[in-house]
Amino acid sequence: MSRKISIKEKIINYVYTVSNQPVIFRDLLSANSHYNEKMYVDPGKLGFRMSIVKAYISYLILCGLAIIPLIGITHYFLKNMNFHFSVLGAVLVTSAVFIGFGLFRSWIRDAITLKLIKKAWLVHFPYFAYDKYSKKVEDIYNNSLKSEIQKKDLQLYVMDKLVEES
């Protein structure tokens, strides 16, 4: 049975290189905590790397698909108007394109981060659904940092607390 891949998935697969190595338990907890807090997640912890050239190519294609029809539609109206409106429009569109790339990078970065967190979650927490337990695990992890739980005891500590709260 073939699964249709969305445009977002195609972009992610094209732009990012993902490591075959599994995500370490502690790195998963840290990444989950940072992601839930809307913070920057270190790509090394989840094992992915962005190709900036491929990101520019993807963004250029998306912009072309959006801007070319817009130019075709507005050309008819702007050709008889004062050229100052055309210049102003060109400046606005150009600035939107450059600002949009930062938003595009952030969007695909968040998408790959969540995808890899959920993939690692299935390995480390197979009986706990991500959507239901990610906040609980984040709280347990933050408490473990405050309690200075050692690395070797972390997994047992988290699992015990998670079972207690379930």
What does this entry show, briefly?
The protein is mainly α and 166 residues long. The protein has one domain (7-126). The chain has helices at residues 7-15, 25-36, 43-46, 52-78, 83-124, 130-146, 151-165, and strands spanning 16-18, 48-50.
Task: Characterise this structure.
By secondary structure, the chain is mainly α. The chain has one domain. It has helices spanning 7-15, 25-36, 43-46, 52-78, 83-124, 130-146, 151-165, and strands spanning 16-18, 48-50. A two-stranded antiparallel ribbon has the order 1-2.
Number of domains: 1
Question: What spatial form do the alpha-carbon principal axes imply?
Answer: elongated
* Separation, N- and C-terminal Cα atoms: 35 Å
DSSP summary, beta strand count: 2
Order of helices and strands: HEHHEHHHH
The unreliable regions are: none
What is the overall pLDDT average? Answer: 91
Strand order of the largest sheet: 1-2
Q: Nearest-angstrom radius of gyration? A: 22 Å
Major sheet, described briefly? 2 strands, antiparallel
Number of H- or I-type helical stretches = 7
Strand content: under 5%
Structural class: mainly alpha
The share of residues in helices is over 70%
List key phrases describing it:
elongated, 166 residues, mainly alpha, 7 helices, single chain, 76% helix
